[in-house]
């Protein structure tokens, strides 16, 4: 294109002398690069004469608004009049608004720009065959009442007129990117690669896929006013204007080079994929219908999704987020926020989550106790030191490697359903699970599940305290009274260790199978502390209002059971099944803390001495008896009771159903009396055994008896 520099000026006629007019120059613009043509008309209908120009070097058609004092404001009508040569103004479509015509010599184009009444102009192509178009004009050539158009073109030495037949010339939309236009041609919406597409062929299109077409400019998309779905992913777009596409419900512009994205006008959006771009901020506050937002792998440092309460899938990984609030997104089923700088994440409101990816952040804790539907959890490479998954019974995948875990609770009952499990590179020594046997056999360091040396147990906490139920009195008639003078039943605890034990927070029950009977001992009270080799008397009177040492349980003289647990109500401290008691006759261990129980005189808060073991109240059974274990079925603790009518060498052994020896509970001489033992479902090596049916057999003198019991997991 030849370069021309011209100045558009306005010459105002000033009569100085009669018959001798002179003119004073007033510059309207000095930016009409290569100005070729000028015309004057009242473009905005305000009674003031405005000015139009055509400039060829910048392909521009412009008008200059006169404010009534001959101060002019420039308004660009078009920058795509390639080699603009001529401009004219007329009411082409007879709607009362001044329209503009142009001739462009490099594109051989005659066009008119329709004024909507607010000086917004829409281009309409009249001809693209006016070879080197030089001039344009409008008049009713055939006198039919319609404005016709004339042109002069010197490339073909042609003067032509374009007859208007009572309706405007066909509207076109400017599409400058050849790859975009070619895609539209391939889709059947255009037929010629000329930077224009007929608007009527695209304005009713609802679904447009121009992905992976090497498009760098999507100008022209504004003509697709009915679009509901647009896929322009995997191109080279650096900008995208979809403000005119207000019907959009699905926008996929991922894998481009966008540094910003405005979707404020797209209030119907339900799906937005804008991942793998360079977007540094994203406002989705107007997109309240959004249910899927994929904006990962950008440069976003702040993101507010509080208005997007319909979100079910939200993926914002690999950005620069330092905080994320999803408390309002209660419908979320999938959330990935990996590789950010998050120091905390609250998902307690997201109870429908099935997949959570929060790996590669700076998290120090994670609570997923409310996320009971969770089946996939990615939380590796953070600073989490404790993870409780006991509520996540649907887990099938767990990646928690490369953390600082010292505690991992997997007591959720999941075994073979967990097909992917990695807890390596942590500080774990033991992992809690309801089935340690399965875990030990299947989740191994050889398989890449755990670090070498990590074990599995139902409870990985420190061993239960050095505490036993040492004596009980179920029928207290004249023995002893509490501080209120009441003769209540009691149980005595004995600390056989060398450190004090605080029973505050422990749980005690008189019915192992009914959690309504579980009672938690109050905390923060010095009276619950038992010194080394010390005793503590607890009154089982169901009158806790009388003090911290009065329990909401009851011991019955006809016999029963009592269990003492850690605060989790699961970890056993001691358990006892006791036989019927007569008045003022206690049932206690002799010696203190030993495994041997017998009936004796009460010694509340004192040592059970040898002399007491010989008192006249001791009842000797009349025959050998092995009772059914209790409870049965059980998990993981059960009590075995038996009776010895005379001093005997006693052997009680557990066998599996194949007759293989599992554990010897006792193999020693015992005095006559009512006896009991506890089995904790472990073998001779202290390892938990698997669920199933087991046999237990007693041999005492010539007496042999065998019974079955069922271990559940």
Features:
713 residues, 11-stranded parallel sheet, 3 helices, 35% strand, disordered N terminus
Characterization of the model:
The protein has about 725 residues and is mostly beta strands. It is built from 3 helices and 48 strands. The protein has an 11-stranded parallel sheet, with no helix packed on it. The protein has a 5-stranded antiparallel sheet with strand order 37-32-31-40-41, with no helix packed on it. A 4-stranded antiparallel sheet has the order 3-4-5-6, with no helix packed on it. The protein starts with 7 loop residues before the first strand and ends with a strand.
Average pLDDT, all residues: 90
Estimated helix fraction: under 10%
Strand order of the largest sheet: 16-17-18-19-20-21-22-23-24-26-28
Q: Multimeric state of these chains? A: single chain
Strand content: 25-35%
Report the principal-axis shape. rod-shaped
> Counting H and I runs of at least 4 residues, what is the number of helices?
3
Low-pLDDT ranges: 1-18, 611-618
What distance separates the N and C termini? 86 Å
Number of strands: 48
Q: Report the C-alpha radius of gyration, rounded.
A: 45 Å
- Biggest sheet statistics: 11 strands, parallel
Main structural class = mainly beta
Write the layout of secondary structure elements.
Elements (H helix, E strand, L loop, with lengths): L7 E10 L2 E10 L5 E7 L8 E6 L4 E7 L5 E7 L5 E7 L8 E6 L4 E7 L5 E7 L5 E7 L8 E6 L4 E5 L9 E3 L3 H9 L9 E3 L8 E3 L19 E3 L18 E3 L18 E3 L18 E3 L18 E3 L18 E3 L18 E3 L18 E3 L7 E3 L8 E3 L7 E4 L9 E3 L7 E4 L2 H7 L12 E3 L9 E7 L16 E6 L5 E2 L4 E3 L8 E3 L8 E2 L4 E5 L20 E6 L6 E7 L7 E4 L7 E4 L9 H4 L11 E2 L11 E7 L3 E9 L4 E10 L2 E7 L12 E9 L2 E9 L2
Parallel strand pairs: 16-17, 17-18, 18-19, 19-20, 20-21, 21-22, 22-23, 23-24, 24-26, 25-27, 26-28, 27-29, 29-30
Antiparallel strand pairs: 1-2, 3-4, 4-5, 5-6, 7-8, 8-9, 9-10, 11-12, 12-13, 14-15, 31-32, 31-40, 32-37, 33-36, 34-35, 34-38, 38-39, 40-41, 42-43, 43-46, 44-45, 44-47, 47-48
């Amino acid at each position: 294109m030849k370069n021309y520099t011209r100045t558009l000026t306005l010459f105002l006629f000033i009569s100085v002398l009669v018959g001798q007019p002179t003119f004073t120059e007033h510059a309207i613009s000095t930016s009409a690069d290569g100005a070729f043509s000028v015309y004057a008309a009242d473009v905005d209908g305000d009674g003031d004469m405005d000015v139009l120009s055509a400039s060829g070097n910048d392909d521009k058609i412009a008008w200059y608004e006169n404010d009534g004092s001959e101060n002019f404001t420039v308004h660009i009508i078009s920058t795509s009049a390639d080699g603009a040569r001529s401009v004219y103004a007329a009411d082409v479509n007879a709607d009362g608004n001044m329209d503009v015509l142009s001739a462009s010599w490099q594109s051989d184009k005659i066009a008119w720009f329709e004024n909507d009444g607010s000086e917004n102009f829409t281009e309409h192509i009249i001809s693209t065959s006016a070879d080197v178009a030089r001039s344009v004009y409008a008049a009713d050539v055939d006198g039919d009442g319609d404005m016709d158009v004339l042109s002069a073109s010197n490339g073909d030495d042609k003067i032509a007129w374009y007859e208007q037949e009572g309706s405007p010339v066909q509207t076109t939309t400017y599409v400058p990117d050849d790859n975009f236009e070619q895609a539209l041609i391939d889709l059947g919406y255009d037929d010629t690669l000329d930077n224009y597409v007929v608007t009527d062929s695209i304005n009713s299109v609802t679904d447009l896929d121009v992905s992976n077409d090497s498009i760098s400019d999507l100008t022209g998309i504004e003509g697709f006013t009915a679009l509901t779905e647009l896929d322009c992913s995997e191109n080279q777009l650096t900008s995208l204007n979809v403000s005119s596409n207000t019907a959009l419900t699905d926008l996929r512009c991922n894998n481009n080079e966008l540094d910003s994205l405005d979707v404020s006008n797209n209030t119907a959006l339900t799906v937005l994929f804008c991942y793998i771009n360079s977007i540094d901020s994203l406002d989705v506050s107007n997109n309240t219908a959004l249910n899927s937002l994929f904006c990962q792998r950008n440069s976003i440092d702040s993101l507010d999704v509080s208005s997007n309460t319909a979100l079910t899938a939200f993926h914002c990984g690999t950005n620069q987020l330092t905080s994320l609030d999803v408390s309002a997104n209660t419908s979320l089923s999938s959330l990935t926020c990996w590789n950010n700088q998050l120091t905390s994440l609250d998902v307690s409101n997201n109870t429908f989550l099935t997949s959570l990816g929060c790996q590669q952040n700076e998290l120090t804790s994670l609570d997923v106790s409310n996320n009971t539907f969770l089946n996939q959890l990615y939380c590796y490479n953070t600073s989490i030191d404790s993870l409780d998954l006991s509520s996540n019974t649907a887990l099938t995948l767990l990646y928690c490697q490369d953390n600082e875990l010292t505690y991992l609770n997997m007591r959720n009952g999941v075994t073979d359903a967990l097909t992917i499990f990695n807890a390596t590179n942590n500080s774990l020594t033991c992992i809690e699970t309801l089935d340690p046997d399965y875990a030990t056999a299947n989740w191994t360091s050889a398989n890449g599940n755990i670090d070498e040396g990590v074990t599995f147990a139902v409870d990985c906490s420190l061993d239960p305290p050095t505490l036993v139920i040492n004596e009980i009195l179920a029928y207290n008639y004249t023995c002893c009274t509490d501080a209120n003078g009441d003769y209540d039943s009691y149980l005595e605890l004995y600390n056989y260790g060398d450190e004090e034990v605080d029973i505050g927070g422990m749980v005690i029950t008189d019915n192992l199978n009914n959690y309504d009977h579980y009672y938690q001992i109050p905390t923060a009270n010095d009276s619950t502390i038992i010194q080394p080799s010390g005793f503590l008397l607890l009154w089982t009177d169901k009158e806790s209002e009388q003090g911290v040492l009065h329990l909401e349980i009851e011991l019955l003289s006809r016999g029963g059971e009592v269990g003492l647990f850690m605060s989790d109500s699961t970890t056993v401290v001691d358990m006892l099944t006791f036989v019927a008691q007569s008045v003022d006759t206690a049932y206690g261990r002799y010696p203190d803390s030993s495994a041997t129980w017998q009936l004796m005189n009460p010694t509340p808060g004192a040592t059970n001495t040898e002399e007491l073991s010989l008192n006249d109240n001791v009842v000797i059974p009349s025959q050998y008896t092995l009772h059914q274990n209790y409870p049965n079925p059980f998990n993981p603790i059960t009590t075995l009771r038996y009776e010895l009518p005379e001093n005997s060498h006693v052997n009680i052994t557990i066998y599996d159903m194949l007759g293989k020896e599992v554990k010897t509970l006792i193999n020693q001489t015992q005095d006559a009396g009512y006896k009991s033992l506890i089995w904790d479902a472990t073998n001779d090596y202290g390892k938990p055994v698997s669920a199933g049916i087991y046999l237990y057999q007693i041999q005492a003198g010539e007496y042999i008896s065998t019974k079955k019991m069922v271990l559940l997991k």
